[in-house]
């Protein structure tokens, strides 16, 4: 079943087009906006995805293909410069459409190239990871890392279109699927009790990709949460901060483990810690902690984190740019689908929430 979801951003309105095997049928006319005839296309993807999907898509669209190295370590200005070189070589001009085909790393990096090349060219997100489909491809944040920290350079540059082919999730490694599930559980906890309940009822069905229809329904519901939040607060002055649920804990866990714990697994742990904190502050029923832990563990994500002093984990939060800006600000839960920002949270309560992950 094909679905079209609309997104209103301050810069433009765009659609998210979802359908299984969409990438096998995508034609230039599908990427035109309101009667506008696009110029040429350039597909940016990474080395493993090029033979899987990139070469075929580029051939179908008559597009140049720019292949970048795989991995977060290459979400850099150096890789952006390689994309500029490829755009110049392809004679890309202001009418060219850049298609970012890949996970969040390719989407963020290539999006930044699209935002800056000739002061901005048409940009299509073709997310291929579960995380990118429900999170990074929507909302307009693009950018790269610096040696000094993640996502330190970037822009708000919404795509002109998002094309989601849930069938490509068949080749996504299971561990990456589960990392995407952490963000989907987060979206459920923020604003979609129906989504959370659906996963909670049969978490084993969500431990890996099984079929494109189920994946499409899951992505469609989860991405709607992101759409609603970014439409309400495109530049993160208010409710967009809710998307950081579990992330202050999660980023600290990533840092103290020198990124040995991948982001999605750290977010899963962070959701449990956020539930602990919320219960300890008397903001939610203690039973919510168990519900969150059961859902995180049920989809196959780790629920246990030990071997690091809670004080060290809390110290690692101080270098979080969003945390530092907000003076001990945490996204807390009142219930499934109801979150809020708590300020000036006592350090002891935060440490206790981290310590509870080791029990
Ligand atoms: N812009 C935003 O709002 C936003 C939001 C959340 C995360 N992010 C960023 O997203 C990045 C993480 O994204 P990610 O989790 O997608 O990581 P990723 O882009 O590194 O992809 C994960 C891995 O899966 C592979 N892969 C992706 N799709 C595949 C497929 N269909 N088949 C086989 N392999 C596939 C990739 O090659 C990579 O090895 C981070 O850099 C993060 O900062 C951005
Ligand atoms: Zn995240």
Can you put this structure into words, describing what you see?
The protein is α/β, with parallel strands linked by helices. The chain has 13 helices and eleven strands. The protein has helices at residues 49-61, 77-89, 104-116, 130-136, 174-191, 193-201, 212-232, 247-256, 263-280, 287-298, 310-317, 321-325, 347-356; strands at 3-8, 13-18, 41-46, 64-68, 97-102, 122-127, 141-146, 149-156, 161-164, 330-335, 338-342. It has a seven-stranded mixed sheet with strand order 1-2-9-6-5-3-4, sandwiched between helices. A two-stranded antiparallel sheet has the order 7-8. β1 and β2 form a beta hairpin. α4 runs parallel beside α7, α8 crosses α9 (263-280) and α9 (263-280) packs antiparallel against α10. The protein is globular. The termini are far apart. The mean pLDDT is 95. The structure holds nicotinamide-adenine-dinucleotide and zinc ion. Nicotinamide-adenine-dinucleotide is lined by residues 46, 48-49, 70, 72, 75, 102-106, 108, 128-129, 131-132, 135-136, 139, 141, 151, 168-169, 171-172, 176, 179.
Number of E strands? 11
Low-confidence stretches: none
> H/E order of the elements?
EEEHEHEHEHEEEHHHHHHHHEEH
Q: How can the largest sheet be summarized?
A: 7 strands, mixed
Distance between the termini: 44 Å
Number of helices: 13
Average residue pLDDT: 95
- Main structural class: alpha/beta
Bound molecules: nicotinamide-adenine-dinucleotide, zinc ion
Helix content: 40-55%
Assembly context of the chains: single chain
The portion of residues forming beta strands comes to: 15-25%
Mass-distribution shape: globular
Whole-angstrom Rg: 20 Å
């Amino acid at each position: 079943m094909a679905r079209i979801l609309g997104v209103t951003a301050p810069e433009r309105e765009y659609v998210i087009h979802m359908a299984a095997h969409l990438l096998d049928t995508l034609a230039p006319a599908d990427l035109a906006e309101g009667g506008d005839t696009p110029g040429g296309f350039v597909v940016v993807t990474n080395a493993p995805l090029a033979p899987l999907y990139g070469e075929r898509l580029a051939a179908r669209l008559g597009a140049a293909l720019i292949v970048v190295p795989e991995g977060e370590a290459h979400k850099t200005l150096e890789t952006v410069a390689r994309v500029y070189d490829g755009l110049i070589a392809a004679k890309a001009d202001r009418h060219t459409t850049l298609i970012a085909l890949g996970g969040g790393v390719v989407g963020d990096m290539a999006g930044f190239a699209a935002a800056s090349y000739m002061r901005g060219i048409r940009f299509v997100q073709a997310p291929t990871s579960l995380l990118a489909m429900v999170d990074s491809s929507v909302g307009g944040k693009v950018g790269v890392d610096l040696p000094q920290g993640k996502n330190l350079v970037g822009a708000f540059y919404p795509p002109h279109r998002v094309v989601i082919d849930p069938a490509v999730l068949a080749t996504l490694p299971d561990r990456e699927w589960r990392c995407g599930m952490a963000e989907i559980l987060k979206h459920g906890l923020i604003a979609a009790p129906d989504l959370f309940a659906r996963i909670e009822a049969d978490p084993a069905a969500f431990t890996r990709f099984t079929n494109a229809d189920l994946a499409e329904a899951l992505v469609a519901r989860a991405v709607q949460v992101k759409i609603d939040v970014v439409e309400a607060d495109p530049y993160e002055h208010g409710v967009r901060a809710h998307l950081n649920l579990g992330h202050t804990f999660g980023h600290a866990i990533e840092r103290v483990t020198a990124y040995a714990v991948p982001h999605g697994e750290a977010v899963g742990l962070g959701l449990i810690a956020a539930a602990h904190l919320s219960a300890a502050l008397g903001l939610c029923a203690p039973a919510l902690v168990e519900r969150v832990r059961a859902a995180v563990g049920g989809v196959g994500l780790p629920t246990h984190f030990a071997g690091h002093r809670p004080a060290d984990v809390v110290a690692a939060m101080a270098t979080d740019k969003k945390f530092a800006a907000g003076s001990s600000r945490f996204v807390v839960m009142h219930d499934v689908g109801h979150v809020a920002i708590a300020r000036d949270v006592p350090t002891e309560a935060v440490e206790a929430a981290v310590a509870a992950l080791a029990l």
